[in-house]
Amino acid sequence: MGAVLKFFGYNLGIIGNGHDMTNNLRSLPSVDKVIGSDRLAQWRYVLPHSLLVDVTREVLEQERLSILNGRPCRPLADIAESVHMSIDRLVRPSLKPVINATGVILHTNLGRAPLSEEALDAMVRRAGGYCNLEFDLNTGVRGARDVHVEELLCKLTGAEAALVVNNNASAVLLALTALAKKKEVIVSRGQAVEIGGGFRIPDVMRQSGAKLVEVGTTNCTYIHDYEQAISPKTAALLRVHSSNFRIQGFSHSVTLQELVELGRKYDIPVFDDLGSGCILDVTAFGLFPEPMVQESVSLGVSLAFFSGDKLLGGPQSGIIVGKRAFVDKLRKHPLARALRIDKVRLAGLAVTLGHYLKGEALEKIPVWRMIAMPLSEIEKRAEGWVQSLGGLARVIEGESVVGGGSLPGAVLPTRTVAIGSKTKSSRNSEVASKMAKLLREYEPAIVGRLENDCLLLDPRTVLPEHDEIVVKALVDTVSRLKL
Ligand SMILES: *Cc1c(COP(=O)(O)O)cnc(C)c1O
After folding, report:
1. Kind of pairing, strands 393-401 and 411-419?
2. Which H or E element spans position 275?
3. Among 45, 46, 188, 287, which has the minimal tally of Cβ within 10 Å of its Cβ?
4. What angle do CA 369, 276, 381 make, to 5 degrees?
5. Residues of the chain whose pLDDT is less than 50?
6. Atom of ligand 1 nearest to the CA of 273
7. Pocket lining: 168 vs ligand 1, CB cutoff 6 Å
8. In terms of DSSP H, where are the helices of 158-276?
């Protein structure tokens, strides 16, 4: 009763109901009674009793607090329903499929690159059984996991050696730790940046034990700025691709070629954090040029790093290519073990790289299918979606973006379905936000983007094989829309 008295102390408004409250508290069912109710029968035989007791106690505690706030005790059936919902939420996986209609191809919050059918197939199969991950089937002795992708990466990029780790942040951390700890790394001030999601070059540098030496100014860095900063403690010159922003107007930056020449002159390695790591030329699709891995390698960088799940279109991974002597040092470093990639993603990465080697990347890799999708096809699909929306939407011109820290500012012309655009303007945003919510709650969830009081759905980032699902979702959702 202590809680009740304390409660009386500062909420005088319900003193008059004190007697009811005490009665209400008395009517709280026991844990056993709740667990024994019909609604929880399905769980009684499958869940450990202790878990049922735990969850029931939590729900009863909530109920007790609610009574102390002056509300009546809910019937047993309602309390059991709450317990059922809590258990259901607990056992149902919270990672759910989402249809990405945002028009952002590499959406980090939505899991970046979707994978090709063949990559998925390899991943499912390797996950479900044993494989020769670190086992040489010729000799019967222990092997290295890198062999499954190293040759592919070398052939594709022209590099002498390659290594794959957990993600690109790991790749940069590993290289700086193994090769620049307690030494200095020179970076242009305009490149000592935050990529997003907590990846900041100065922080990674600090973590590795390397000292960041920033040169130049935010907008201008010249080759002599680097040269003046070189000291006996310099371990590397680092270029970072400013993947998510672009400096416009009065600016100057040093080319990779100049940097490599400077490195050669002083015998200092050059590292290149490419971010997205493009292997195909994006200018063919009207996009701004993105630095390509092959270029960095042929210019002679010691190491280049890039993500596996950005423009490469594979599973999450960090790829390191470059000179053998440097790659081997990373391979042997203890941190490489801590940052290693698992067999499942390795299998998906090998298949993805194979698509490039076989010249079928544009047809097979979803990211590239989306980039290469003809505008006429997008328009036709958008019109199909509009028809299922019963006069709430129309097709308008818009822009898709590559995203994921690649091609800053790069946009592709698209056609979007604008929901809310045909209603009276005062209701546009109401229609748009209600539809957005209903579509997020749909299974599978469909996520678009809200812009100018409309909900925009971009077919470019939805694979055509998912159109049927989208159309059904739109029909179902419109029927549930209450304004
Ligand atoms: C995206 C990015 C990273 C981080 O890569 P992850 O694979 O997300 O760890 C690092 N550097 C640059 C330049 C990037 O664009």
Report:
1. antiparallel
2. strand 270-275
3. 45
4. 25
5. 1-16
6. 13
7. yes
8. 168-180, 201-208, 223-229, 256-266
